[in-house]
Specification:
This protein has 363 residues and is α+β, with helices and mostly antiparallel strands. It has helices spanning 3-20, 30-37, 62-68, 106-115, 128-133, 138-160, 168-182, 244-263, 270-283; strands at residues 24-27, 44-49, 52-58, 74-78, 95-100, 120-125, 186-187, 192-195, 215-221, 223-225, 228-229, 232-238, 295-297, 304-308, 321-324, 327-330, 334-337, 340-344, 349-351, 361-362. It has two domains: 3-133, 3-Layer(aba) Sandwich (Creatine Amidinohydrolase, Chain A, domain 1), CATH 3.40.350.10; 138-362, Creatine Amidinohydrolase.
Length: 363
Amino acid sequence: MSLTQQTGRADRLSALLPEAEVDALLVTGLVNVRYLTGYTGDNGLAVIGPETRAFITDFRYVEQAAEEVDSSFERRQAQLELVDAIEAVLPGGPLRLGFESSHVSVRDHGRLRSELPARVELVPLDGLVEQLRTVKDTDEVTRIEEAAKLADGAFTELVQGGLSGRSERELAFALEVNMHRQGASAASFEIIIASGPHGALPHGMPRDVEVTPGQFVVIDWGARFDGYCSDCTRTVYVGGEPGPEEQEVYDLVLTAQLAGLEAIRAGASAREVDAAARGLIEAAGHGEHFGHSLGHGVGLEIHEAPRLSQRSDATLEAGNVVTDEPGIYLPGRFGVRIEDLVVVTDEGPQILTSVTKELMTVD
């Protein structure tokens, strides 16, 4: 991450503080700390405002922080719980200090209140940094694209080796090993491999059950590269050709997925994009079999804003990275889901996923 990009993020956060009616923000969510400072350790916080820009960690991470944390931040060493050092980096006089309410426990809030002087008013806030994170810069898109490339290569290697006769759990492990071999630091979430009727569970976890010929297998996986995630789902058919109903459902999901892609553009409402895919599935009589949202944002976390759903109030912006993943799940029978990872642009979707969406039949 370049100095200009990291400093710019803190500047943009500072610009949001007057509207939030606070003088500074205490950032304790570690993903948000990483986004703003560059720090990748597991004990650190930041205080950011027009008059202050400080990073605090304990002695275990001082050298790491010296290498990772943007030089625009004052770096401080503290005790393990870090709270004792916060007052020293705050501006003088009465101060409204925002804190990330979704990342601060009741216990931690009590500790903050007891350690900070009465001149500091604690103001709960939520989502300011997450708001900034929804729009990815060029560097972030490059990392997500690389994560997707590694994941795609790992998947191709897996299916070329055949699925039949191997357990779902064995296949999930092999896919994760493939991603590491390709250069990923980790899987970006717990891999889903669900065969036959198990595929009707949208989040069916791998079992010690062998994949057998004559069924769909839903594979949902992603890689993490330099902190950033990818996400993809493909449904393949093992052994021979699918039956007429299976092919019909697959084709319907693919048509809906393509309609979702067509609707993705800067300025589109998240509800509008969801409806573009969902309407086709509902019209075919499978509305009750598509119970989740069409997609979600992806970045430093596998699930970020914006969410593409019937309940979302979001409007897509250029630089959002989202998934498009309709599915149909027939209880006790089979499921089909097809998912791409997409960058929103003014001209439409930039698809980062390279694996074909035509139905693959594998051994």
